[in-house]
From TrEMBL, chain A:
Keywords: Membrane, Transmembrane, Transmembrane helix
Provenance organism: freshwater metagenome
Domain NADH:quinone oxidoreductase/Mrp antiporter transmembrane as annotated: residue spans: 139-423
GO BP field: ATP synthesis coupled electron transport; electron transport coupled proton transport
A GO MF label: NADH dehydrogenase (ubiquinone) activity
Cellular-component GO terms for this entry: membrane
Record's subcellular location: Membrane
Name by which UniProt lists this protein: Unannotated protein
Residues covered by the NADH-Ubiquinone oxidoreductase (complex I) chain 5 N-terminal domain: 71-121
Membrane topology: Multi-pass membrane protein
Automatic annotation (TrEMBL), chain B:
Location relative to the cell: Membrane
UniProt-recorded name of the protein: Unannotated protein
Transmembrane spans: 6-23, 28-48, 60-83
Recorded family membership: Belongs to the complex I subunit 4L family.
Originating species: freshwater metagenome
Length: 630, 99
């Protein structure tokens, strides 16, 4: 019917690139990065081709499946390795390959001085392949393979400069935190198979009506655990800040635009489960709201430009998770914010990378200042992303974030007012910390030392930033023009009759959001533009600032609750093993040796003592017989 | 005469032999003490044969004598050989089995 054979190329091209570059060795150092970029670009072209083919079909025929091979065939458990491309996956395919290719181009220049550039590009290609498998798998099990694959690529890339112990530790931290989430996903798959007998999306969607409420809630909560791990949501959020140890293109691609949004994809993809399990859905909203505030508060206190952006990413994904927990009306807005966020946050990360490039890898914003004069293009592209994340009309964030705040308010009752207010307040704090970042970096007077020589980056670095900046400006309007994305995605979701719950008209909410944003900006302007900024972090700060600087004690909490008791447990287990298990085994040996030594003393070698013993034995025997028979 | 007296004598002889084996060091004396014990046993067999009025005990006594004769031959040969190699007939000197 349709040509479905090209789906495999989407994954195959970057996967080939990763394999080839890793195996070919130093011989391809000269052109390996070009190959990787071309392969990623080809995958993007295939994606675009697929998109236009899909758009030309009727909405009900848009999803296509390509079965690669029968993967597991045991009794009633049959899983095909199959790819599913539908309206939701194509959004991700275009985002991953599009932003991915731009970041490949950026990395050619950014990593040009690194002697392991070929390995870096191999990992980037591996990531693209794994991420595409994640969004193209037609079952939870196929998704799981991609899910683990992106975790591996993320681990390898965070620890790319693992000669620094802190960076190696950061990559391990990310991997371990992700493993906790992965446990949730594998448990969700197991519960789904145990109760529904299938793990494919279509199968689970079809049979989810037959399952009990409890089972669906359990699956939903486990999927949420998986999402919190991958998307750095509360309570598994601690790894994202440290993940900034990786090279900046990695932070832009994996830890801002694509991988960390996999949790949102998972929730939206599993809409049939969450729609049927209100408890799990409510939990999604709560987790999203908590993380949205959590990330925003951390973002206000960070001086490291990348960590401030990471906190912002966490907060923005909180918005997406919140939206995806609002049911069918929220899914499309979650995806829309995901796509616009992919543009502006990746653009800003690349901008931060460009600034670091011109400032000898300095990341402390207190040692920047006034850089706009030396890096005008970086300033403009970064500034467009900044306006987008603030939600200033007509930039991208305005369309997506306002819709989320609006949907939150309209979700009804106390809950609606509560989460709506949180989302609104979050927008204000976002404006504060992003303005702070912007002012500290680009505005004001220079605070860097004399030896720094800020200069604009090369063309290959600026080009991707420019394209992403255009996306930051236009994507919101394009996606929401005539409800384009909502209509595009709507066949996937079971729309329920919308109960109109307008507690206030949209225009009021938009204005309120803008008021909050303006207030946040004004506060930042007053604190950082109107008053002098020290180039070292002030120490006489309030307890709240201290808490935010320590990431709201997320690491202290994890250390106190998980790490130390865990260490205690392992120590106890080790000593138990040594004392009890080994002690028993060694004790038996020692007892045998001891009793042997004791018995050996009777073996004197003197005939007479043997004779005496025999005699004593005989006499005792006779005596015993005599006693018994008496 | 009361048959029990023979048994008392037998017990006495056996005890003498046993004590001799334990306390004496000279291999020849130890050997003779063993003979004494064997013959004490023989005396008991014969006595019981008489008490019970059958010949079983007598038969066993003959067996014991035959076995004792063989044992004497071999035992004396061992003692002579040990004496030749070690220039000693003390049983305590022949304690190599300990190691």
């Amino acid at each position: 019917m349709f040509n479905t054979n090209s789906l495999v190329y989407l994954i195959g091209l970057p996967l080939f690139g990763a394999t080839f570059l890793l195996l070919a060795g130093r011989k391809v150092d000269k052109w390996g990065h070009i190959l990787a970029t071309v392969l990623s670009g080809s995958a993007f072209i295939v994606g675009v081709d697929q998109f236009f083919q899909m758009a030309n079909r009727a909405p009900e025929d848009r999803a296509i499946t390509q079965v690669l091979f029968s993967w597991i065939n045991v009794g009633t458990f049959n899983v095909d390795a199959a790819l599913l491309l539908d309206q939701l996956s194509i959004c991700f395919v275009l985002l991953i390959t599009g932003v991915g290719t731009l970041i490949h181009i950026y990395s050619i220049a950014y990593m040009s001085h690194d002697e392991n550039r070929r390995r870096f590009f191999a990992y980037l290609n591996l990531f693209i392949a794994a991420m595409l498998l994640l969004v193209l798998g037609n079952s939870y099990l196929n998704l799981y393979v991609g899910w683990e694959g992106v975790g591996l690529a993320s681990y390898l890339l965070i620890g790319f400069w693992n000669q620094k112990p802190a960076y190696a530790t950061a990559s391990k931290k990310a991997f371990i935190a992700n493993r906790v989430g992965d446990m949730g996903l594998s448990l969700a798959i197991m519960i789904a198979f145990a109760t529904l007998g299938t793990v494919s999306f279509a199968g689970v969607a079809e049979k989810s009506h037959t399952a009990s409420q409890g089972a669906l809630t359990a699956i939903g909560i486990m999927l949420l655990v998986a999402a919190t791990g991958k998307s750095a949501q509360f309570p598994l959020q601690a790894w994202l800040g440290d993940a900034m140890a990786g090279p900046t293109p990695v932070s832009a691609l994996i830890h801002a635009a694509t991988m960390v949004t996999a949790g949102v994809y998972l929730i939206v993809r599993s809409n049939f489960i969450f729609d049927a399990a209100p408890t799990a859905q409510l939990l999604v909203v709560i987790i999203g709201a908590i993380t949205l505030m959590f990330g925003a508060i951390i973002g206000t206190a960070k001086d490291d430009i990348k960590k401030a952006l990471a906190a912002s990413t966490m907060s923005q994904i909180g918005y997406m998770v919140l939206a995806s927990g609002l049911g069918p009306v929220g899914y499309a807005f979650a995806i829309m914010h995901l796509l616009t966020h992919g543009f502006f946050k990746a653009g800003m990360f690349l901008g931060a990378g460009s600034v670091m490039h011109g400032m000898d890898d300095e990341v402390n914003m207190r040692k920047f200042g006034g850089i706009r004069l030396f890096m005008p293009i970086t300033f403009v592209t970064f500034g467009l992303g900044y306006l987008a994340i603030l939600g200033v009309p007509p930039f991208a964030g305005f369309y997506s974030k306002d819709k989320i705040i609006e949907t939150a308010f309209y979700s009804g009752g106390i809950k609606g007012i509560l989460i709506g207010s949180v989302a609104l307040l979050g927008a204000g704090i976002t404006a504060f910390y992003m303005s702070r970042l912007m002012i500290l970096t680009f505005m004001g007077t220079p605070r860097y030392t004399e030896d720094k020589n800020p200069h604009e980056s090369s063309f290959l670095i600026l080009l991707p930033m420019a394209i992403l900046a255009i996306g930051s400006v236009a994507s919101g309007f394009l996606l929401s023009h005539g409800n384009a994305l909502v209509n595009w995605l709507s066949p996937l979701f079971e729309m329920t009759e919308e109960t109109e719950n307008e507690i206030m008209p949209p225009i009021v909410i938009s204005s309120l959001a803008l008021v909050f944003v303006a207030a946040g900006f004004a506060l930042a302007w007053k604190m950082y533009a109107r008053s002098a900024v020290s180039n070292t972090a002030p120490t006489d700060v309030s307890i709240f600032t201290k808490a935010a600087r320590r990431d709201l004690f997320q690491d202290d909490f994890n250390e106190a609750v998980f790490m130390r008791p865990g260490q205690l447990l392992t120590k106890t287990l080790v000593s138990t093993d040594e004392l009890l298990v080994d002690g028993t085994v060694r004790g038996i040996g020692k007892a045998a040796i001891g009793s042997g030594n004791l018995l050996r003393t009777t073996q004197t070698g003197f005939v007479r003592s043997y004779a005496a013993l025999i005699l004593i034995g005989a006499i005792s025997l006779i005596a015993a017989i005599w006693v018994v028979t008496q | 005469m009361n048959s029990a007296n023979y048994l008392y004598l037998s017990a006495l002889l056996f005890t003498l032999g046993a004590v001799g084996v334990v306390v004496r060091r000279n291999a020849i004396v130890v050997f003779m003490c063993i003979e004494l014990m064997l013959n004490a046993a023989n005396l008991s067999f014969v006595t019981f044969s008489r008490i019970n009025g059958n010949l079983d005990g007598q038969v066993v006594a003959f067996f014991t004598m035959v076995v004792a004769a063989c044992e004497v031959v071999i035992g004396l040969a061992i003692i002579v050989t040990i004496y030749r190699s070690r220039r000693s007939a003390s049983v305590d000197d022949a304690s190599l089995l300990k190691r």
